[in-house]
Design brief:
- There is one protein chain.
- The protein is mainly β and 424 residues long.
- Helix content is 0%, strand content 55%.
- It contains no helices and 35 strands.
- A nine-stranded antiparallel beta sheet has the order 4-29-28-27-25-33-23-35-34, with no helix packed on it. A seven-stranded antiparallel beta sheet has the order 1-11-3-5-6-7-15, with no helix packed on it. A seven-stranded antiparallel beta sheet has the order 12-22-14-16-17-18-26, with no helix packed on it.
- A hairpin with an 8-residue loop joins strand 6 and strand 7.
- The relative contact order is 0.19.
Length: 424
């Protein structure tokens, strides 16, 4: 069974809560589920900032969410996270739109989503399911950031991991709060990691600067902007430990909660590359193995270590056959607010300008190029935006060794990655 993945989308159930829907046809029993969405019932573009992501291992769940109104003055943005739901979709009014739990065992070769709070909107839900015999251990959990800078060890994982994905918002308690903040990150080692954070300030009179920002780095695994768009917290990956992992906090705030997913078994690569610049060009990214699953993320700008204007985030996934992506943006300093979102089920990543301009989008090919994945940019704005990735693959054949892959690449078609092999 090796390492197995399934990428897909489904329309959220619309009945009164509690209501369940079974997603079938995966071809395997998933061990962990990554869900994400905008608040769209149709593909394309829509007004308003919206992005929700969640993890579930069937027992433990975590989900942060952001939303913001378009064409208003003052700004109206909100954030939320919960530690016991696979998805938590919020409204800018402060009310809960929809929440769900995931059951990964009751449906043969599939999973069950139960909406415990539910609106009548059939939102497009994206998912990436991971399973197979090579994926030996998974753990979804949450923990708190320290009050001081320096190393902090996180325990309770139950095993020594190979890859970590991190998500979060801002705050020490669950619920809805003014000001949008979203955080994503990943790491396999102290040299292969990335992180991104976006924000959109709430209740800002539009004659003033709105303070919508984005921050992406490949020398961090966790970044958190404040609601005003300045760096609030940041951490780098230090080590895998027998029961967890250690992070080095370069900036820290007391007790802010973040969520994580730790994976063990198989092979993983985490890194970044610069988008090629011509129509239908290819980025061939060497990861040291044949990937069977892929996530791509971008802040929509060229590589930089500084905080930049406009809160923008894209996230997509692929299993080599199926792909889908979501994008959202809240511009900085416009009158009135300019906030938009997009969803598409035929591309692995979309970069855009609101309200409805596609800057660039791509397909993913996981098999054509040896030990690599390929992105083909079917729309291209000519920019060299930085694209971050996490790739998943089956365990290495007996006799192969773990190695660094292109740690210092040259040229736009190379990637920065570190390959981690699970037990043989």
């Amino acid at each position: 069974m090796a390492f197995q993945t399934k990428q897909g989308t489904f329309a959220k159930a619309t009945g009164a809560a509690p209501v369940s829907q079974d997603i079938t046809g995966l071809g395997f029993q998933p061990k962990v589920l990554i869900l994400w969405c905008t608040k769209q019932t149709a593909e394309g573009f829509a007004a308003g900032m919206s992005f929700t992501i969640g993890f579930s291992d069937g027992t433990n769940e975590f989900s942060p969410s952001v939303a913001g109104d378009d064409n208003v003055d003052p700004s109206n943005t909100i954030r939320a996270f919960v530690t016991n739901k696979a998805l938590y979709i919020n409204n800018t009014s402060g009310s809960i739109d929809s929440t769900c739990d995931a059951n990964l065992t009751v449906v043969t070769n599939g999973f069950r989503i139960t909406w415990t709070t539910n609106s009548a909107n059939a939102y497009i839900i994206h998912y990436l399911a991971l399973g197979g015999t090579d994926l030996t251990n998974v753990k979804v959990n949450n923990d708190t950031m320290p009050a001081v800078v320096g190393n902090k060890s996180f325990t309770g994982v139950g095993f020594q991991g190979d890859c970590i994905l991190l998500i979060g918002s801002l705050g020490t308690a669950v619920g809805n709060f003014g000001g949008a903040v979203m955080c994503l990150g990943s790491a396999v080692s102290s040299t292969s990691r990335w992180a991104v954070s976006i924000n959109a300030k709430d209740n800002e009179i539009m004659a003033a600067q709105l303070d919508c920002k984005r921050h992406q780095r490949t020398d961090r695994c966790l970044l958190q902007l404040s609601t005003a768009g300045v760096l609030r917290a940041g951490a780098d990956f230090v080590s895998w430990d027998s029961d967890g992992f250690t992070l080095n906090f370069i900036a820290a705030v007391a007790a802010d909660i973040f969520g994580y997913l730790v994976l063990k078994g198989g092979q993983y690569a985490v890194g970044a590359f610069n988008k090629c610049t011509t129509l239908n060009c290819n980025n061939d990214v060497n990861v040291g193995f044949t990937p069977v699953g892929l996530t791509l993320e971008s802040w929509g700008r060229a590589a930089s270590t500084t905080i930049s204007a406009d809160g923008e985030l894209s996230l997509g996934g692929s299993d080599g056959t199926n792909e889908s992506t979501a994008w959202t943006e809240h511009l900085d300093g416009t009158l009135n607010t300019s906030a938009d979102q997009s969803a598409v089920s035929t591309k692995v990543l979309r970069l855009a300008n609101g309200p409805s301009t596609i800057k660039a989008e791509c397909d993913a090919d996981l098999t054509t190029v040896s030990n690599s994945f390929r992105t083909t940019w079917t729309t291209n704005d000519g920019g060299s935006e930085e694209i971050c990735y996490a790739a998943f693959g089956s365990a290495a054949a007996a006799g192969r060794t773990t190695k660094n892959t292109d740690p210092f690449p040259l040229g736009i078609n190379a990637g920065i990655s570190h390959r981690i092999s699970g037990p043989l």
